[in-house]
C-alpha cells in the first residue's frame, strides 16, 4: 500500500514501514533509541519488530503497565525518570510500540522530555492504527477524565504493521472497528455500508487504509481542532463520559474505548434525529448495526445522572456550553450543536429499547 503523507510526517504500511524506519534511523544518527512497550507488546510484538530493524543502535527498552487506568501523569513521571537515568538527551528518539494508551502517553512523554524529543508511533491495536496514533494528539487522563492533559505534536512517522493484529483478542478488534464505523458515519455512507458487510477481521488492510485516509484528510484541513477536526469526535461526548464513569465505578464493567463510543454513537444518533435531519431509517440503521456487534450496556437512572455530570469536562466545551457533533445524514456531520437537557433521558431510553 502506498504511504499516506500528512503535513509533516507519513504513515507507512507493512514492509514499507520497516524500510522507512530503517532509512530514517540510518540518516538521523540518534544518540539513543528508546522503545516503549507494555507487558503485552513486550511479549508479542517486540521481537518481530526488532528483527526487522537493520543496523546497530544504542537501544533501551522501557516497559509500562497496560490499560487506560495507567494512562496518567504518574506513569509519565516514571518514564521521564527512566529516560534521565538512561542518559536520554535531546538527540534521542522514543519509539512507541503499542496501542492507543501507549502511543498517546508516549507521544506526550516525548513532547515534554528535554522540551521535546523525536518520537515514532508503531500502533499494534486496530484502534490505534485507525485513530489514536494518527493526527498528533498526545496526552493522558486526569483521574478518570479522558485526555484532559496533553499537546498536539506530530511524530516523525507512523508505522502500521497489520501482522500485529493477529496478537489481539476479538474484543480489542471490535473496539477498534467502532472507530472505523465512525469514519463512515462522518465522511462516507459508502464506506459505512462496506464496513457493515465485514463478518470477520482476517483481512482488514484496505479498510484500515481507507480509515487512515479519512482521518488524515480531516486533520490536514484542521490540525489543531478549531473547526472541522471536531467531527472526529462524533459519539465521543457521551461516549467518553460513559467510559470515564465505568472506569471510576468498580461495580460497573470497564468498557474498552470503542465499546463506550459505540453507545455514544447510538445516543448521539438519537439526538441527531431529534435536533437535525437524520432520517428515522438512518437512526435505526445505526442502532441495529452497533447492537449487532456490541453488547448492550445497562444504565440505571443514577448511572445516567452521574454520566451527564461528567459532560462538563468534555474538551469540545466552550464558554460553559456542551458542544456536540451530530449527523444531518450519513456522512454529513455538523459541529457545535447544543442539546436541551430534556433529551438526554429520552436518548438513553431509546438506547435501552429492544
UniProtKB/TrEMBL annotation:
Pfam families hit by this protein: DHQ_synthase (PF01761), DHQS_C (PF24621)
Keyword entries, A-Z: Cobalt, Lyase, Metal-binding, NAD, Nucleotide-binding, Zinc
TM stretches of this protein: none
InterPro entries the UniProt entry points to: Dehydroquinate_synthase, DHQ_synth_AroB, DHQ_synth_fam, DHQS/DOIS_N, DHQS_C
Cofactor: Co(2+); NAD(+)
Function: Catalyzes the conversion of 3-deoxy-D-arabino-heptulosonate 7-phosphate (DAHP) to dehydroquinate (DHQ).
Name under which the protein is recorded: 3-dehydroquinate synthase
Tagged with keyword NAD: yes
Database matches in NCBIfam families: aroB (TIGR01357)
EC top class named in words: lyase
Name of the encoding gene: aroB
Keyword presence, Ribonucleoprotein: no
Residue span, 3-dehydroquinate synthase C-terminal domain: 176-317
Domain of life (superkingdom): Bacteria
CDD domains in alphabetical order: DHQS (cd08195)
Boundaries of every 3-dehydroquinate synthase N-terminal domain copy: 62-174
Known EC number: 4.2.3.4
GO molecular-function term, one example from the UniProt record: 3-dehydroquinate synthase activity
